[in-house]
Amino acid sequence: MQNFLENHQFIWYAIAGLSLIIELGIMGLSGPLLFFAIASAVTGILVNIGLIDGWQSEILIVGILSAVITLILWKPLKNMQQLRSQTDESSDMIGLKVPASSEITTTGGTIRYSGIDWQARLAEDAAGIVGNDLNSDVISDKSQCVIVAVSGTTMLVKAL
After folding, report:
1. Helix orientation angle between 8-22 and 55-83, rounded to the nearest 10 degrees
2. Which of 27, 40, 114, 116 sits 20 to 30 Å CA-CA off 78?
């Protein structure tokens, strides 16, 4: 314990590690603790090389670095999270022909598969060309459709 009190950098490394573990394990890299963990690690490095001395300045540097790192990394990390493929094109449901259990539009509807009603909507490239009707953006109730992609728990469908 005395070693921690005499060598503040180890405390900052421990805080950084604990924050990172909590961020990755519980919060799923959503941000706030990640920025604090990076700031704590950088502060530990600055203390280790002797650029900062004293608890007050160390805490001040962690606060300032957290704010600066947040400003720098917030938007790129959010963009990276949104770039992940939101539609699954590898599901075993893709290609299945299923009946619509309610009217399906570009904003919603339902299909019936395996005794369950699933949320569905028209796939983006299917809107406007449904069946033989070039101006329809709807698959009517009880009509057959094919699943072309999965987005979360919503099936993206096209008319047959």
Report:
1. 30
2. 40
Q: Which pTM does this prediction carry?
A: 0.53
3-state secondary structure of 134: coil
Tens of pLDDT, residue by residue over 42-65, are 999 999 999 998 899 999 999 999
- Going by DSSP bridges, is the β-strand pair 97-99/110-113 parallel, antiparallel, or unpaired? unpaired
Domain count for the chain, please give it. 2
155: three-class secondary structure by DSSP = strand
Which of 7-34 are b and which e, b meaning 16 or more Cβ less than 10 Å from the residue's Cβ? Answer: ebbebbbebbeebbeebeeeeeeebebb
At 107-123, the pLDDT tens digits run 899 999 888 899 999 98
Last residue of a domain, one of 54, 83, 112: 83
Q: In angstroms, how far is CA 53 from the centroid of its own chain? A: 39
Degrees, nearest 5: CA angle 149-155-158: 70
Place of tokens 């919503």: 154
* 125: its two tokens: 């490239």
Q: Are residues 75 and 122 in the same domain?
A: no
